[in-house]
Amino acid sequence: MNEHPGCTCADTHWDGCSAVPEHCSNNFIPTGWELEYESFNQAEPRRMVFYLTGRCLHCGWRPAKIGVLIPGDLTGDALFAHIYQLMETYRPFDTRFSNGAYRSRLPMRTHWYMEQDDLKRGEKNAQFLLLFHEDDQLAVEEWICRTHSEDPYTAPRRDRKSTLFHAVLDRARASGDLREIEPILDYYLPTKKKCLPSEDDTYLTDYSFSAVASISFGCEGIFVDLSIVGNFDDSGKDRCSIGSFKTLCSDAEASRLMGQLCGVLMYHTTQYVNENIHRYTPTKELHAEQVRKAAQIFKNGQASGRQSDKTEGSGT
Predict the structure, then answer these.
(1) What is the pTM of this model?
(2) Would you say 218 and 198 are in contact if contact means Cβ atoms under 8 Å apart?
(3) What is d(CA 186, CA 188) in angstroms, rounded to the nearest whole number?
(4) Which backbone phi and psi does 87 adopt, to 5 degrees?
């Protein structure tokens, strides 16, 4: 890995010194991807570099980029697969955990990484295609269609805790169930700007939970907390708050509406998870389902073959 940020900071001019990774860890904010190459022609020595582009906080938000050299012996499908994997997994200066959580010094960088992790397959493919020269994009598009047209059945795009919370709000708003309630709310958390801490916003990988909304009264108004209770991931925890609401109002009407909010949240959480159950199905169950489907297809194929043999035999 060539960690040359390319910014103008005096202490990060590339000289192999150990201060470069430390500086980038404290200042590098990613903004995109870039692939630098001349051509795929193997008749000549080829140099290809995959860059994470970004900005440096220390020198006034000037452009910076971190480069990874692509092995020169890769060609065809192997080359495309290697670059695609880099785009999905290259997350320098932060620690990414298997549950989708991050540990980082810079929330802005972590937020960008998490957005990349959660891209839909079509968005990710479009981003990958644009890395290449226009003359090469037909070959790249053909590879995408063959290998990455959809998410693998056993590895669906999971929802995070924040994804579920915002999906529930969107669903409730679209149905009109929040029309009376939202005017009295002073705030709710998390929002798109005030996110869950990156180390807490993990993927939900099990549907065996219930939505539980609770209401409490305090000296500063009424609070509603939305939690999921049961099995929702591999953490071993059985309860987690995914969102909270507050109103400074404390009269009877506000009490009625906040109590109504509890029911609205529980209903729409349950409906949303049921409508997107594949995203919440444990990986072991998905593998078992895939094996059963493959066995059924094989069985049906054998039965069809025997029926065909009988038909041919009866006609001779």
Answers:
(1) 0.85
(2) no
(3) 7
(4) -60, -30
The DSSP-derived string for the chain is -B-------GGGSSSS-THHHHHHHHHEEEEEEEEE-S---TTS----EEEEEEEETTTTSEEEEEEEEPPTT--HHHHHHHHHHHHHH--TTSEE-TTS-EE-S-HHHHHHHHHHHT--HHHHHHHHHTTS-GGGHHHHHHHHHHH-SS--TTS--PEEHHHHHHHHHHHHHHHTTTTTTGGG--EEES-SSSPPPTTT-PEE----EEEEEEEEEETTEEEEEEEEEE--SSSS--EEEEEEEEES--SHHHHHHHHHHHHHHHHHHHHHHHHTHHHHS-HHHHHHHHHHHHHHHHHHHHHHHHHHHHHHHHT-
**Cis before residue 63, ω within 30 degrees of 0?**
no
Task: Say yes or no to pLDDT of 309 above 70.
Answer: no
The per-residue pLDDT for range 176-231, each reduced to its tens digit, is 999 999 999 999 999 988 999 999 999 999 999 999 999 999 888 999 999 999 99
Judge whether 19 and 11 are in contact, CB under 8 Å. yes
What distance lies between CA 107 and its chain's CA centroid?
16
Q: Which two tokens stand for residue 270?
A: 């349950």
- The length of the chain in residues reads 316
Instruction: Report the distance separating Cα 173 and Cα 225, nearest Å.
Output: 18
pLDDT in tens, 47-99: 899 999 999 998 888 898 888 999 988 989 999 999 999 999 999 999 999 99
Query: What are the distances in angstroms from CA 186 to CA 146, 179, 245, 255?
Result: 50, 15, 8, 14
Is 3 in contact with 20 (CB distance < 8 Å)? Answer: yes
